[in-house]
Amino acid sequence: MIRVECVCEGICHLGECPVWDPVRQKLFWTDIYRKQVWAHDPALSSSSVFWQGSYQVGGLAVTRQGSLVLCTDKGVYLLELGVDGIPKQEPLLLCSLPFSGGEMFNDITTDSEGRILAGTLERKHFTGSLYRLERGKPPAKMLEGIRCSNGMTFSMDESWFFHTESLTHRITKYRYDRATGEIGSPTVYYQGSSREGLPDGITIDVEDHLWVAFWGASCVRRLDPEGRPCEQIPIPARQPSSVMFGGPRLDEIYVTSAAEGAVDLATGHDRTGAFLGGPLYRFSAGVKGRPEWPAAF
Predict the structure, then answer these.
(1) Which CATH fold would you assign to the domain 5-284?
(2) pLDDT score at 88
């Protein structure tokens, strides 16, 4: 029986996009609606708000220099960190995008070349696009008309790019060209239904199995290389939002969650008294994950 522990009891309105920093041995994640970035230090068993700003941060990436890229509702920013790991100044704008009213980034990933692939979401009509962000180049739109772009990752050999479209209950895999960053040849990897909850954030282990947070279903599921569920881990929150491998051996999975829709955001409960979420959880996966590639910005 896998034991799931709560490692940060702070209630996030919309906790999302956890990323493990292997150098600092810390986990960063965002509370989108509260315009915060959180940090968890497992060595000290402590968590705190790492950054508070005026942007809704929908995705985070650690750079090769140890700073953070913030993909937000106002554009893409670089948050430079000093040798002490503390932000040196206000975030610097890297690029703006032609967002429609209410559109913002919603989950991102990086490839081995340091590119960022980032999805957007306009929450009124639940549509968005997928962009490729690359240093020295303008943002490139790769997909559009997406119903709630969410979790992304790559196969271990980087020949496939996985992309979650939550409102269609689908994870699609695309052939990936690492040299150019182009995608092609889409294949449905996983097709669920409302009964299973909404597939949200994802990550991959060294056996090419995906781990998927299922929003509304109080669980994380492991999917085999054919997209078939082979393991399910109950999470004590109805709305787990994303997953990320971390820890010294990269064999622990951190799970963010969200209190979105709660009548009391301080407690995370809905009108029936059910607990929707907000804390950060962790469990031992029994398998190692792949380190996230740093962004080249």
Answers:
(1) Neuraminidase (2.120.10)
(2) 84
Tell me, rounded to whole angstroms, the distance of Cα 231 from its chain centroid: 20
| Cα Rg of the chain (Å, integer) | 17
Residues of the chain with pLDDT under 50: none
Single out the residue of 219, 216, 243 nearest to residue 231, CA to CA: 219
Q: Which of 278, 201, 204, 281 is nearest to 245 (CA)?
A: 204
Question: pLDDT (tens digit, 9 = 90+) per residue, 123-153?
Answer: 888 899 999 999 999 999 999 999 899 999 9
Encode 223-240: b = buried (16+ Cβ within 10 Å), e = exposed.
beeebebebebebebbbb
Phi, psi angle pair for 231, to nearest 5°? -160, 145
Query: Domain residue spans in the chain?
Result: 5-284
pTM for the whole thing?
A: 0.97
Q: What is the three-class DSSP state of 251?
A: coil
Read off φ and ψ for residue 195, nearest 5 degrees.
-65, -30
